[in-house]
Amino acid sequence: MKPSFKLLVICSILFxxxxxxxxxxxxxxxxxxxxxxxxxxxxxxxxxxxxxxGGKPALGQISKFTLDGTKIGSYPFELDMxxxxxxxxxxxxxxxxxxxxxxxxxDLTQGVYSLVYEFPGVNEQATPAISxxxxxxxxxxxxxxxxxxxxxxxxxxxxxxLKCADEVADGGTAVAVDKKHIYTWDGLQQKVYVYDxxxxxxxxxxxxQGDYGFSLAIANGMLWVSTDGNYEEGTWYGYSLD
Length: 242
Fold this sequence. Notes:
The protein is mostly beta strands. Helices cover 7% and strands 48% of the residues. The protein has one domain (28-240): TolB, C-terminal domain (Neuraminidase, 6 Propeller).
């Protein structure tokens, strides 16, 4: 028996919905980075891109690039970094470390920074993200997202049940946020999971480049991940979310 027209329409709608829920992305911006250690994280102030490394405090550095990935310079910071973040509320860069500490960068070129908060309750491997308005900071730990107030460092809320990797190195402690969405991921599968700001699942993105679990970030309106250089040359991939 031939399928009815109505059934064909329903199947077509479901098929299209399936495609939308697993959208495939190809990077728009690709550039190399030599971090001395690991290609940990990336951010942007709208004029430049900034990356940080992690693994050995003695080799800690933040590197500055143009928006298309041309390197401007690297600046030493003796910290074991996990995230570099731009805060639009005070127009400062912030660093989160393996020691669960949050630092404000007071002078990038001179290497001056100040301790802002310590977060003893978060995972030491977390790569947090500051909200688009600069009021909140998000920490992921294997599907549980802790949201802290940037004004006083106090826990505001917790979201549970978010999809992510099972291992730290694959992205189990990574999160990214923008004005409307929360992003988690599994670097091993190269899959990014998209939620609204209340933690409601929206869709899945499939990346074709980048797999380093710590590196998930939003910078200059793009989604970024890296392939870790592991003490050699790594690569950053920026995906358009249009």
